[in-house]
Amino acid sequence: MTFDPTWNQENYESTLAILLTAIGFSLFWFISMSKVIKEKFFTDGKGITTWINYVIFQKMTGVLFLGLIPAIIVFSTTDYSIKDLGLNANHLDQSLLYSGIMCALILLLNYFATNKEDRLKDYPQMRVTNWTPKIILINAFSWAAYLIAYEFLFRGVLLFLCYSSLGFWPAVAINIALYATTHIPKGAGETIGTFPYGLLLCYVTISTGSILVAFTTHFVMALSNDIFSIYHSKEMTFSK
User: Fold this and answer.
1) Which residues does 84 contact at the CB level (< 8 Å), separation at least 6?
2) Complete DSSP assignment for 74-118
3) N or C: which end of the chain has fewer CB within 10 A?
4) Domain residue ranges in the chain
């Protein structure tokens, strides 16, 4: 193989997408998980408001580095539109069918998976004892904002730009590789699960041209994980 570092403009889109994903997620992770920043939030103790503010900070950090900044860079340096990158309602009937089947399975699996001590130590992220409807809504909206940004980057920017430049299987391989890597800190179980789930989401996203299924199923997964964790927890309860 001959070494040739010459820049090829045809590689711009895939190169940009991969770098935006790697750099964006790295910045999000190290800032949102910073022990120094967390200590500043919890200087006065671990009250309800503090936990809510801290988790919202984490989610909004994701919105910034996974959504807003990548969107500005992509839309200012390429000809792609929001719709081109999956933020649309294309093939809505197919998306709703996929979402319904996948969400039903996710709810079933999450109900049993959350009844484990190792899961209950980490979920929900807001370590609030009494979960009122207001707190549940705040948690849901913060998840929604974060996951729109997350799926826009992974199943929008990364998948569609690589698919356009490299074709289906290379784009899927890159997507799953980075997606799985981001889940390594969450343990072997979640990391292994990203391979079949990631493959299915890539197929559905490209076939429908929309990230609707990816967002919907990911949102249901995250929110139900929290709700079921509260239900199974011996320390947390639902209250009015």
Assistant:
1) 160
2) HHHHSS--TGGGT-S-TTHHHHHHHHHHHHHHHHHHHHHHTSSHH
3) N
4) 12-238
Taking alpha carbons only, the member of 62, 63, 84, 93 closest to residue 13 is: 84
Write down the pTM of the prediction.
0.95
* pLDDT tens per residue, range 11-52: 999 999 999 999 999 999 999 999 999 999 998 877 899 999
Distance CA 171, CA 160 (A): 8
Identify whether the C-beta of residue 88 lies closer than 8 Å to the C-beta of residue 210: yes
Q: 211-227 pLDDT, tens per residue? A: 999 999 999 999 999 99
- Residue 230, classified by CB atoms within 10 Å of its CB into exposed (0-12), middle (13-18) or buried (19+), is buried
Report CA-CA distances (Å) from 75 to 80, 84, 145, 229: 6, 11, 20, 39
Question: Does residue 53 contact residue 46 with C-beta atoms inside 8 Å?
Answer: no
Measure the CA–CA gap between 136 and 72, rounded to whole angstroms.
31
| Residue 175 contacts residue 162 (beta carbons within 8 Å) | yes
Look at the chain and count its residues.
240
pLDDT digits (tens, 9 = 90+) for 71-96: 999 999 999 999 999 999 999 999 99
Phi, psi at residue 86, to the nearest 5°? 95, -5
Please answer whether residues 208 and 217 qualify as being in contact, where contact means their C-beta atoms are separated by less than 8 angstroms: no
Q: Is 202 buried (19+), middle (13-18) or exposed (0-12) by CB count in 10 A?
A: buried
